[in-house]
Amino acid sequence: MPWARLAPHPLLMLWLDSPDWPGDCPARHADGGEALVIGCGLGDDAEELARRGYAVTAFDISPTAIARCRERFPQSPVHYRVADVLRLPGEWQGRFGLAVEINTIQSLPGPTARPQPPRSREPSRPAGCCSSAVWLAARTRRMACNGPGR
């Protein structure tokens, strides 16, 4: 798989390791908080968050990707699951303090490229945040953004 890094995304690592991030999110510093990894691929970002103390749920639309995660990390505490980003399970509503999305939503074609789920279906809590590679890249270049969760 040419897209697979087999390591956590560098921008996620930069965000996690940075002591002072503009517009920071309290969930980034919450040991033991719940995190959701959207479009987890082969699981490296999810495993890094689990290593740092998060209770992680990670999903991908591909059953093959989820099977590979379970093969690669057989003793993992991460709950890997097949799911569709456009039809999130109801039990995830408001559950997570941190949602991480890297190169998933922005790669969707056409009108689905920027889905706007109703507030009641968002996985992160109101005080939580969503981290995306696009948002993180913008921050590293000191570009304006709408802040966490946008």
Question: What would you note in describing this structure?
Answer:
This protein is of the alpha/beta class. It has a domain at 29-106 and 122-140: 3-Layer(aba) Sandwich (Rossmann fold), CATH 3.40.50.150. The protein contains four helices and five strands; from the N terminus they run H-E-H-E-H-E-E-E-H. The chain has a five-stranded parallel β-sheet. The N and C termini lie far apart (30 Å).
Mean pLDDT level: 74
The total of beta strands comes to 5
Stretches where pLDDT is under 50 for at least 5 consecutive residues are 113-121, 133-150
Give the end-to-end Cα distance, rounded to a whole number of Å: 30 Å
| Fraction of residues in H or I helices | 10-25%
Helix/strand order:
HEHEHEEEH
Q: CATH superfamily membership of one domain, which one?
A: Vaccinia Virus protein VP39
Approximate strand percentage: 15-25%
CATH class of one domain: Alpha Beta
Strand-pairing-aware structural class: alpha/beta
Query: So how many helices?
Result: 4
